[in-house]
Amino acid sequence: MQLLDGKYVSEKLKQEIANEAAEVLANSGRKPHLVAILVGNDGGSETYVASKMKNCEKVGFRSSLVRYDETVSEEELLAKVEEINQDPEVDGLIVQLPLPKHIDPEKVTEKIDHRKDVDGFHPINLGRMMRNLPCFIPATPYGILLMLEEYKIDTAGKHCVVIGRSNIVGSPMSILMARNSNPGNCTVTLTHSRTKNLEEIVRSADIVVAAIGKKNFVTADMVKEGAVVIDVGINREISTTTKSGFKLFGDVDFENVAPKASWITPVPGGVGLMTIIGLLRNTLASAKKEIYK
Ligand code: NDP
To answer: Which of 20, 215, 244, 283 could form a disulfide with 235 if both were Cys (CB 3.0 to 4.6 A apart)?
Structure first.
């Protein structure tokens, strides 16, 4: 078994991003600028946004956080998105999910100018991704592609089974792995909670992408010898043994699956770190007008 080491790859790619950000600053006089909107006080969201902001600073980007109490109206939030859309000093805008129940996440996603949609959730970016056109790819699947690319994992002709069909991970991942590109060119099976014979399907996979949100969902008996296993899951459990007061677990039973896998991502230290890279790369591409002029 070999580790798909998110810590190593993300540090390496961050250095490259920092070099390019310095060039952007030298050429244009301004840093790539990411704005994040955070609504409410969800513990997980707070951690993710703080990490995104911190990493922006690390690579020489400017980052701004706009915070709202969870009572903010949909109207006020949409007006803020519009204001940021119009701001020429902003390259990327993300609205951290989940949002409170009274705010429609679809409305917010569609309100973001697709040219600043560095999370890659806007229908225009998703549509362009389907057609293999330049676009912002959703950050988590993008990070996974960068990881596969870094380790030169051969994906062409392989059977990739994606577990979970969310708009932000499973569905785009299945499309990306099926595209005529590298990484890609897989035969893809997208599975979800209504899938019959899930264990059997996963057992036939050369590449497994687990994005379910259930600790130890993928067990050793579900994984073929030599499979590549990508664990997207982040399941937080309260812990008295860690400084933060909680411990992270993936969707894969790492201890028992790892000996069977050819390559596997750990949690933490895997896909989570690569998600940040996906976001940084999209923000940089936006600042450089690489995707939309
Ligand atoms: P969602 O809750 O949106 O989707 C979960 C998916 O898993 C759904 O499609 C659901 O099926 C499927 N599922 C649930 N139970 C089963 C089951 N018993 N058998 C088969 N499929 C099942 O989750 P996300 O995609 O947003 O996130 C998944 C995990 O990844 C979470 O732990 C999340 O925290 C983590 N995550 C990690 C990121 C990272 O950077 N590492 C980024 C984003 C998410 P159905 O559609 O039928 O309900």
So the answer is: 215
What is the DSSP secondary structure assignment for residue 31, as one 8-state letter?
-
Q: How far is CA 23 from the centre of its chain?
A: 25
Ligand 1-lining residues (CB < 6 angstroms):
140, 163-166, 168-170, 191-195, 198, 211-213, 232-235, 271-272, 275
Is there a catalytic annotation at residue 52?
A: yes
By most ligand atoms within 8 Å of CB, the mutation choice from 9, 42, 192 for ligand 1 is 192
Q: Quick one: tokens of 152? A: 């030169």
pLDDT at 293: 86
What is the SS3 assignment for 245?
coil
DSSP 214: -
* pLDDT of 145: 98
Q: Which helix (H) or strand (E) holds 171?
A: helix 170-178
Query: What was the pLDDT predicted at 2?
Result: 98
CA of 195 to the centre of ligand 1 (A): 14
Q: Residue 58: is its pLDDT beyond 90?
A: yes
Domains of the chain: 30-113 (3.40.50.10860), 139-272 (3.40.50.720)
256 confidence band (pLDDT: 50, 70, 90): very high
In tens, the pLDDT along 114-155 reads 999 999 999 999 999 999 999 999 999 999 999 999 999 999
Angle between helices 170-178 and 139-150 in degrees, nearest 10: 40
Q: Residue 152: how many CB atoms within 10 A of its CB?
A: 8
Helices (H), the chain: 6-28, 43-58, 74-86, 105-111, 123-130, 139-150, 170-178, 198-203, 254-257, 271-287
